[in-house]
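Onboarding guide, step 5: your first structure request.
Type a short instruction followed by the sequence, for example:

Predict the 3D structure of this protein.
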Amino acid sequence: MNLPNQLTVSRFAITVLFVAVVLVDWKWATSVAALLFLIGGLTDIADGYIARKRNLQTDFGKLMDPLADKILVTSGFIVLVGMEITLTPEELGAYKLPEAFAAPGLPGHPLMPAWMVIIIVARELAITGLRLLAVNKQVVLSADNIGKSKTVFQVTAIISMLVLISYPEWGEGWKVFFGMKIAGVPWGIGFVFFVTWGAVVLTLVSGANYLWSNRAVYLKDM
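The system replies with structure tokens like these:
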């Protein structure tokens, strides 16, 4: 197994460790989970770069790399639905949105709105099904550029949300840094809102584009 494929396979192990860490109730759980997710995201960048640089691209990598990404990302978003923001209403400042649109969520509500997670998981399952159908036809579908951008936004959204609920434990200096406000809202909140909604929009756009671009794979069987 070449190095890019080893990195791809390692992402499955990182996902298992990430979920295990989150489920353990201890002070630094979310901080360590954020670090693990960052490592998982970096392995995704590294395996693709090394494969292209050293001409080590394989059908295994083309199939398993997107699958490893999907398992890592969907696990991360599902975990976020079970978490709540730790900031007080005063610390949130002017961040006041309807519950269904608040990402990150408001105190007492899920950190990630469930409907967003449903869209993301449904898209990933649909594209995985398309890839499996393509494999049965001896066709390997690679990720497109929109899909890669979508993955970057998704990974960034998950890491930023985990950091958002972790930094109050890091010390007063980090509270001041992340608490700096722009238009009455802490910049950390605004950044999470931007990347999360960006991830959802790109998920929908990339899914529609992928299904349309590869429609020949499934139209003949309908």
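Each response can be followed by summary notes, for example: The mean pLDDT is 89.
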